Amino acid sequence: MKQFDSFRLDTGNECLWRGGAQIALPPKPYAILRYLVENPGRLITHDELLDALWPETYVQPQVLRTYMLELRKVLGDDAGSPRFIQTLPKRGYSFVAQVTEGANEKNGVAPPSAMQGQSAGPGPAFVDRDEELRRLRLGLDAAAGGQRQTIFVTGGAGIGKTALVDAFLRLAGSAQAIMIARGQCVEALGRKEEYYPVMEALAHLCASPDGERACRILARMAPRWLPALPGLPTVGGDSQALADSAARMGTERLPGELCAALEELATEKPLALVLEDLQWADEATLGVISALARRRTPARLIVLATYRAQDGSADQPMMALKRDLVVRRLCVELSLGPLDRQAVTEILSAELAQEALPPGLDDFVYRRSEGNPLFVKAMLEHLVAQGYLVREGTGESAAWRQRAPFPETDSGVPDELSQMIELEIERLGADDQRLLEAASLMNVAFPAWAVAAALEDDPAETEEACDDLARRLYFVRRAGQDELPDGSRSAFYVFAHGLYREVLYQRQSASRRARRHTRIAERLAQLFAGREVNVAHEMAMHHEAAGNWQRAAGVLCSAARNARDRHADAEAEALLEQALRLAENLADPQRQSVEAEIRDELAARRGSLPATSSATPLS
Predict the structure, then answer these.
(1) Which residues are bridge partners to 45 per DSSP?
(2) pTM above 0.85, yes or no
(3) CATH architecture of residue range(s) 2-115
(4) What are the distances in angstroms from CA 426 to CA 19, 62, 175, 579?
């Protein structure tokens, strides 16, 4: 067992411990962390990592970046000030924490949870998924009785799909004996290497305590699959002979043979085949899942497949397979939604290790994260890094306290969370990115007509493109229709998370944003001609965002005159006060002229001067 800081890397059980809590990592992130921990204090190049973990396979270096982001989240590491994994730009990585040797459980030392009398249940930050765990448990019970199960776990990025599967496997393993074969789909390999996650799952199974029996059954019933497994275990001295014999039979892997072998393997105890991120799976892997779900013979087998909701084309093979199995009642789908406020409070209490939270923390993080567990932790880390939260006191009296008021407006997107969102956006085509950037100019909710105006595109075609995005992307959804003043209708949409909108907004250049904001404001004026007062605030917001201070102030002054005519003096005064604040951004002598005009209007409203009929337009 390797120890660093408060973590223990359990190489015997292939998992990570933090204090008394077990953290289950998918196979590839675990393998990367183990390689780093076993080679501390030196540069490990990108090529070395790729060669060590993906031998004889081409993998884009971007895959490493994705896994490093995941590992830093687990470790609570900061790329800018690393305690564990240091990035050496254009070269590789270095594990900078001190590593010491510890004893593994198989050497007679129990894991931390056992030593501390804790249960093997879900980790401390896993909350509010009791119903999903119950349904997974029912699936396992049915599989244990010979009724094969296929369960899809779906949800957006960071919603907790892997955490749910980890918690279920821990609970299931503590209640009964089960075998686990786990594989991870990788985006860069999704269309290049057939059966990649299946082969990883088989390798994981063959390296488990049930590995010897698994290899014997594979060699006997699915001989073409065994030679391709990396690090083929020794099976009673004859595994190599069996592998050589299988190699002579040819290289084509037959899914039917594998299905029969897995079913045979599950005769002694249930087998859980876990395949993650299925949205990136190759069609051959999907064929294996389809075959396992459709076979009629009894089998003590449960297939758990996670995939990111609406991440890709609605007609992609994975979605088609899932829909077909649902229609035929051959699978179950568990869709994970955001956590409620109480669950967010429980996560914060667990992460900070204190029951009483700083006032307002749970409310602020809930609003900013919108109940996404990954975003909750990222926002908390951001508040600590920015100095809003500090740990005061020592010993038992130590506690996290609020040092500065939480920002009421945009507090920025945490760096690593921003990078994760950027990666998702970069996977999209140029037209999709352009559309989403324009959508971000409005707010969390955006109408199709405004996107069309910003891009100077046809409104009908833009609405069709927005509908297509809403079908394909989990972070955009259609929310309804608005009736415009000319009698036409325009659909409007919402970003599932405000953080996505912020990243999309900030990735545009200031000049591009200004042009697009101006176009939206001008389109508002056209749509509401004669009734501009109804959208004065919206028009002023877009002109202000574009840096058109005079036009923004002019819109507000026009609305104030309309309010005056309606004898709404308080409304008129508020509009003029806002216009005066905007005018402060103008340069002299223009600022003095505009301010004088607005002050005259204010004086008239307050009764100091007789009301004038029409002032010189500011715009």
Answers:
(1) 92
(2) no
(3) Orthogonal Bundle (1.10)
(4) 37, 11, 43, 39
